Amino acid sequence: MTITHFIEELITLFIMAVALGMDAFSVGLGMGMIKLRLRQIFYIGVTIGIFHIIMPLGGMFVGKLLSEKFGALATWAGGILLILLGLQMMIASFKKDDKPFITPVGFGLILFALSVSMDSFSVGLSVGIYGAKVFLTVMMFGIVSMILTWIGLLSGKKLQGWLGSYSEALGGSILLAFGIKLLLP
């Protein structure tokens, strides 16, 4: 492999990683509108980065035989999870108590990370068939999605300060819209 070919592959993987990480950015923007501490934002970004490594690895290892069936299933599951999270945030914004039903802590964080990394599973199936370098691919996906998640969460936190009590409803609507977008062809 020549250095030119390696750079071309690196650029291609980076573009794919940014495309995959944009959903983490968008959802992070919505989720950042609930009150989160910087430590939570750090852990959320790391967790989503890890899921963006694990899910494509799983997709790569499942392989060519099941790609069409699991690709659609993963997208549907991710869309449904985002819709549920978005609805929950919107409903919680109208309640008197400040505690949302699902928070990005513990199991809620796992659900959140799973919902934004489902498309990585499908991409992993495709990339595995294409024959890309596994380590380089999954590390690029994980690092880029982690950074984009942090940017989204921090931007959402800033917006939350500007929008006050309406921020959680707006964040929920962003998650809801993104979930619906995943479900529509």
Automatic annotation (TrEMBL):
Coiled coil: none annotated. One of its GO terms (cellular component) is plasma membrane. Its main location: membrane. Keywords: Cell membrane, Ion transport, Manganese, Membrane, Transmembrane, Transmembrane helix, Transport. It is a multi-pass membrane protein. It is found in: Cell membrane. The chain crosses the membrane at residues 12-34, 41-61, 73-94, 101-118, 130-154, 166-184. GO terms for molecular function: manganese ion transmembrane transporter activity. Probably functions as a manganese efflux pump. HAMAP family: MntP_pump. Belongs to the MntP (TC 9.B.29) family. This is Putative manganese efflux pump MntP.
